[in-house]
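ESCALATION

Customer reports they have been waiting on this structure for their group meeting. Please prioritize. Original submission:
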Amino acid sequence: MAGIISYGAYIPFNRLQRAAIGAALESRPGKGERSVASYDEDTITMAVEAARAARHGREDVPIQSMYFATTEPPYQEKLNSAIVHAALDLPASMRVLDVTGSVGAGLGTLFAAAEGVAAGNRLVVMSDIRLGAPDGSAEQAGGDGAVAFILGTDDVIAELEATYSETLTHQAMWRLPGEKFAKVWEERFSLSQIYSPLLISGGKNVLEKAGLTMSDISAVVVDSPNPRAAANVAKALGIEPGKMVDGMQATVGHTGAAYAGLMIAGALDAAKPGDRILVLSASDGVDAAILKATDAVANYKNARTVAALIDSKRNDLGYTRYLKWRGILEAERPRRPDPDRPAAPPVFRARHWKFSFVGNECTECGARHLPPQKVCVSCGAVEKMKELPFADRRGKVATYTLDHLAYTLQPPMVMAMIDFEGGGRVELEVTDCEPDNVDIGMELEMTFRRFWTADGVHNYFWKTRPVR
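Update from on-call: job pushed to the front of the queue and completed.
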């Protein structure tokens, strides 16, 4: 039976306190905090993080197709999933596809991919950044994050026992091309007439389709743009409070197309063989599923659990800095020339280095080079090299500097000379760190980031960060 072979999650390092939003805007403060993608992150970079986690320890599992679901694609006309594909250094002979336009894109894509696993394994990546207009409920309730699943028929840890879907057009939430913030209709309307009835129908029908009752279910995932719908669903379906999977509202927020997937990942982190997970997700309709954990789940070791990612954080992000990161608050540009956009020909020629972070090693003396070289810097051998990937290797700080003059949305810029395990040295920017805590010998890991955007072109490359 088709199901989940592996999965991985990503929640950004930074958190914004909802009380800080209320204090800045002199409005009623919310409770808890929301996750915030850094100034150098977007849905592509977060997708890469989640997919790398899903492939950790499963690098030998072949992938025939990849799907990327989001409501916030960095490019409107360009295959965003092709950049994810390049960063993961996946084979060229595979199909990739973007799916967007609705917060329901994530779970719907998972279902569609599962229907095609007979033709080969599928990688489904869900990633979203949720924006809301200042002083609005969406700003408080939203969050940023990503999750990835590898689907197949061998070594399955969670079988997809049954699915059920309905489609219903409505005007509860929408956004036009070029608009930054989604609009929502009066919330009582969406709660009572849209989301609650859809979720209840999805739950009843998928249980009937599977020939199960709520007593057979161990955990329930409820995903709705209106969080109050979960209580209505629990009452209507008779769900015991202890079975409801934490919606992460107090710690992360609603992560759009990635929200249902992140809760599934959290439920699988705690699942035991035989446990069944009921999944309900409402948007322009409802998608419902029942996942059954297999015996293999007992031996499955996730790279980072959802709970660990929630706990690994810096939660003192200022509200005005958040607004600058998102381009909502326009700030003065640096008083120096803007960066040039990356030129297409050199980027294309160096794509294996730039996107996949692949260096090389001299076959004559074993010296390692980052970036890759044709002539060995150690023994002088010419074109005696073999490619060597470095993205999954850890390194240590050999020396570093804090640059207070270079322009960055999170000053100061931390630049470090990194020595990699087994050899290889390169200078890289350190992100997701507290500058005062950086020190020689600190252990670091690689992370794919967006450096800047110039003349409509996003410049992606690799940075490094303290091991989370």
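Sent to customer with the following note: The mean pLDDT is 95.
Escalation resolved.
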